[in-house]
Design goal:
seven-stranded mixed beta sheet; 13 helices; 40% helix; 17% strand; single chain; alpha/beta
């Protein structure tokens, strides 16, 4: 840990400019594959800090990579900057108040995520230059984590080839080394085609695509009883076929998210859901076109990296929140229920404490009842040893993907949390660059978890990312 204080000083030297970057990205919320303004901000900052910049990574115009250093191991720091629809919110107030505009908002804190990741990469770059040690750091600006699986596409296209280890973080209600728990996830579209007819005068001539979607949904609801308890299946209507009840709907479409604890389980469950769709088509005399939109793998743990990050976190200590930070967090908690707050503590596995914001460190091996989602970081973890931090940027109990997250995205507490995350990531990276045995242990752990199974991207090779055109104002 002899390098810790120096790398943390290097983080502090840049923290103000990266907090400003985070705030700028907060103010330009862009959803999956539309992050043209956000990626431009990140690319400009990479050039300003002296990185060698590669744009259009893996053929994705909103992905960027910056590299610094020469020779030695390559350590990747992963960042994100996509927002969510429907979570627009004025900053710094504890009541729902959407802003004018497109309705998007940083309700998952990715404005902080990307900025802290680049802050860590910048500190590592400076440390490499000052120490003269061989090694390279890469900042990957990754779009479309929210449902777009950009890292999965990037992994499939070889964007991470040659990297020795990856480090990332996510804004959270708690400060901890994140448990490597996520669900493999496929987003799959089912488009039914039937035959239109007059619903009263000639119903026998019609074949209802809407009936097919409804029958599929009923069938999947029955399927849920017969899948592993930690699998998840949920859906959203894409096209109900029209608004005229006197027309037999000739087209209808539904999108399913199908999740399981591992890739094999997800692929097996995908086939079962497909069979339900085919059965619905058969019952209604319609046809169904099935297409995968995106998919992500489950996370693989890496014990040596997790222990190294925990040592950095314990040496660093808790985030230094002050009375003003706690006062605003208490106002946010007042908008929540006791169930929200209790659920947050239950998920991490520690007793409830009388503080509105996490001013402590969660131990490494506590085991709670995690509510598991999905992330495209999972695919990176199959390609190389990967570790993820959580740092507190929101009041304890704040639901993810909520207006409350957006409201807290520019606070002093959020800036403190992102700086802490940068220090956790940078310190872990320096350990890897300085200690060949740690890197070798991380790689050995990774190979043992892969076993005889090589990584195969869950997105079929003929499926391309759903790229969106550059808006005129961003051209």
């Amino acid at each position: 840990m002899q390098n810790s204080e120096r790398i943390w000083d290097l983080v502090d030297e840049h923290r103000a400019e990266f907090a400003a970057l985070s705030d700028r990205v907060w103010g330009m919320p862009e959803i999956a594959y539309t992050e043209y303004a956000s990626v431009a901000e990140h690319a400009a900052m990479l050039r300003e800090q002296g990185f060698r910049v590669t744009e259009n990574v893996a053929g994705i115009p909103t992905a960027v990579m910056g590299e610094a250093g020469e020779g030695g191991p390559i350590i990747a720091i992963l960042g994100e900057y996509d927002a969510l629809p429907g979570l627009s919110q004025e900053a710094g107030i504890a009541e729902p108040k959407p802003l004018p505009g497109n309705g998007h908002g940083h309700g998952c804190g990715h404005n902080l995520l990307g900025s802290a990741a680049m802050l860590a990469a910048t500190a590592i770059k400076d440390w490499l230059a000052q120490s003269g040690k061989p090694g390279r750091v890469r900042y990957y600006g990754c779009p479309a984590e929210e449902g777009g699986a950009a890292k999965s596409f990037m992994a499939r296209e070889g964007a991470f080839d040659g990297v020795d280890a990856a480090i990332t973080w996510h804004p959270s209600a708690f400060t901890e080394v994140a448990r490597a728990l996520s669900l493999a996830n496929t987003r799959m579209d089912f488009r039914f085609t039937g035959r239109a007819s007059h619903a009263a005068a000639a119903p026998h001539l019609g074949r209802s695509a809407l009936d097919a979607v409804e029958l599929m949904n009923v069938g999947v609801n029955y399927l849920r009883e017969h899948v592993p308890s930690d699998s998840r299946i949920h859906y959203a209507m894409l096209d109900s076929g029209g608004i005229a009840p006197n027309v037999v709907q000739a087209k209808s479409a539904v999108r399913y998210a199908i999740r399981s604890r591992d890739l094999k389980g997800m692929l097996d469950l995908n086939e079962r859901v497909k069979q339900v769709a085919l059965g619905a088509a058969m019952m209604t005399g319609t046809t169904v076109d099935i297409s995968i939109m995106s998919a992500v793998s489950n996370l693989l743990p890496n014990r040596p990296l997790e222990e190294a990050m925990q040592r950095n976190l314990e040496h660093l200590g808790p985030i230094p929140f002050d009375a003003e930070d706690k006062a605003f967090a208490a106002k946010i908690q007042a908008t929540l229920s006791d169930e929200d707050i209790d659920n947050a503590y239950r998920a991490v596995g520690i007793p409830r404490q009388e503080t509105p914001i996490c001013d402590f460190i969660v131990p490494l091996d506590v085991r709670g009842e995690p509510m598991i989602g999905s992330t495209d970081v999972g695919d990176v973890s199959w390609v190389m040893p990967t570790v993820q931090a959580h740092a507190a940027t929101i009041a304890i109990g704040t639901p993810g993907h909520s207006w409350q997250v957006t409201a807290q995205g520019k606070t002093a507490a959020a800036h403190k949390g992102m700086t802490h995350a940068a220090k956790m990531m940078a310190g872990t990276a320096i350990d890897l660059l300085s200690d060949g045995q740690l890197l070798a242990a991380a790689k050995a752990d990774h190979q043992a978890r892969l076993g005889k199974t090589s990584y195969v991207c869950p997105i079929p090779p003929d499926v391309n990312p759903p790229l969106q055109p550059r808006p005129k104002e961003a051209a």
